[in-house]
Amino acid sequence: MTDTAAAPSARTGAQPPPEGGPRRSYARMAADESREDYSLRYAPHSFRRWSPTMVASTALGGIAYLADFAIGASIVFTYGFTSGLASILTAATIIFVTGIPIARACAKYGLDMDLITRGAGFGYFGSTLTSLIYASFTFIFFALEGSIMAQAMHQAIGLPVQVGYLVTTLIVIPIVFRGMGALAKVQAWTQPLWIIGMALPFLVLTFEAPDAWGAFGSFGGTEGAGSGFSWIGFGLGTGVALSLIAQIGEQADYLRFMPAKTEANRRRWNLAVLAAGPGWVIIGAAKQLGGAFLAFVALEAVGKTHALEPIAPQIEALRPWLGSFALPAAALFVIVSQVKINVTNAYSGSLSWSNFFSRLTHRHPGRVWYIFLNLAIALTLMEMNMFAALNKLLGFYSNVGIAWITVVAADLVINKRVGWSPKYIEFKRAYLYAVNPAGFGSMAIASVVSILAFFGLFGRYAEAFSTFIAAGLALVLCPLIAWATKGRYYLARPNPVNGPEAAVADVTATHTCAVCETAYELPDIADCPVQAGPICSLCCSLDAECGDVCRKDPAAGPVLMPLPTVRTAV
Q1: What residues contact residue 130 under an 8 Å CB cut-off, 6+ apart?
Q2: Cβ contacts of 300 within 8 Å, gap of 6 or more
């Protein structure tokens, strides 16, 4: 929701504002949750009306992208089949394992990746860096997917690639503008066509080129790597494949709408969270290997450069059955696939930028405005032909991405279990330190060391295994720092309203924010000594004048126990 006032309306004194005093009002688009989708907030139970199966199917619709094809082909072409296969499977295992606790936390608490990160060791401002990391993931992969779509339109209708970049950028705006409801419809409507388009090339090759499968297993790549196993190739290939680890953030943007787990839906809930969360990487790894296979089959006919572009292998695979219709059929499949993923990239990017700027500027003009920022950066990357530097760019990004995700997973699995971190996820400014060294410090150290290794400072093997260095340091340092600091930087003050006792409280009870005068469910409310009443998490974030009294002066709170209940909604 968006603050349009010239200055924050929250008071700096300890007394409640006078009757009828100014309140924070939000711009029309920012106040419309059908577009905002609680972009900076806890997703309330009243908004989580989808079934677990619906959430899972919608989330999995967002992984229709063909970047997996390009990434898998690039890895196998560079390092050979054996090393490439080991790289892809190892990266998939790491992504799956780290994604399990994150997916469950997002679904359980109704929070996106940024809010989870705040409470999982980074602190209120410490997580702004991870918002940038996540935003980078969305615009890098939007650019990659957009480049693939532009290549398809160039092949199909001769549209200049540079113009295609602009078209691929503009086409997603109307969908993303309307929010999660529109995204869910697009994913559902296009899913049957996508499944047919995904399976058909492999079905054709099974009948028309059965020997290709065996030949692919002995493929030594195009760079002279050879068909045998190479530790250097394995390490570098794994680093490229691990660039996809931040995809769990996009899955979380769907998972936060998962309904509450009950005895009646427990099994379906667990399966849906597993499938929609870390389960995406099973399909992703299969697509990487499938994309590499299609590129291998098309290599002799189209050459290396075009074989790495998913549209050309698709055409070659379909040609034996579809003849002259292979080109339009392949182009349609590519365009549908890229729209399905790029609406998610643009949507998730808008959430990430909103989180980032709301904390730095204490302003929130609305999620929809940040769509244009994200798309502008992605369009610039496309025009700079980032596709040509795919391996190097993704390998570099992996070092930071895996450090971030591993730290969050380590906090959820280790620190919270042994008591060095609160058992629940606290995301509200009113209760968090600005920076928590357990998470932020661990990620910073792991990222810096691994990036230095990536650029060759510690030798060839350290360069190849820089992402493993990042993951190892993050996994060790996060619990080590939490233990050394005794967890003191997780909570700036106890949460008397919805802390540990929230598990038994009626979290669906709504309470009126003293600033915007809107009712929100209990987990989205903090007690505010400045307002002498409840304040919602977003109004608290946007307050630039309160001086963080609640965190600095122990005598300032708590001031409201219990909160006045307005109504109860499920």
Answers
A1: 113, 114, 117, 122, 404, 443
A2: none
